[in-house]
Specification:
Layout lengths: L1 H7 L2 H36 L9 E3 L2 E3 L2 H35 L7 E3 L6 E3 L17
């Protein structure tokens, strides 16, 4: 039981749970935006009162594409908001953090004879036994 508790309280599991809850709440905001603002505007431009009722008929089969378009727009808006408000700033911060940390100085160099990596202070290659000049 203690191992299961440790698993649940690990940072990744808690972060995932918080992300799912925030995502569900955000989905409600996007759905409301579509149903209350965007769909009525599109429906007004198209002449119908409800965007989700858009459809066409092929050989007596009714294809209702309005709801699909509504869900697709919801997905695209959600993806764009997540990208521009979360992913892009995080990538920017990570790039800034990585550029701020200087790259560690290399401790090895290639042997001029066999190209094997050898320590910088080495005066002889361990692989081919060639004498190499010391590097300060």
């Amino acid at each position: 039981m203690a191992e299961f508790r440790a698993f649940l309280l690990r940072g990744n599991v808690v972060d995932l749970a918080i992300g799912i809850m925030i995502g569900a709440a955000f989905k409600g905001v996007i759905d409301s935006f579509l149903a209350d603002i965007l769909n009525p505007l599109v429906a007004a431009a198209g002449g119908k009162t409800d965007f989700t009722e858009y459809s066409f008929t092929v050989n007596e089969a009714v294809v209702t594409y309005g709801n699909f378009i509504s869900v697709l727009v919801s997905f695209l808006i959600t993806a764009l908001v997540i990208f521009y408000l979360i992913i892009r700033p995080m990538n920017h911060l990570q790039a800034r953090r990585q550029s701020a940390v200087p790259e560690p100085e290399a401790t090895t160099r290639p042997c001029p004879e066999c190209l094997t990596e050898i320590p910088k202070a080495a005066v002889r290659c361990a692989a081919c036994t060639a004498a190499v000049p010391a590097v300060g």
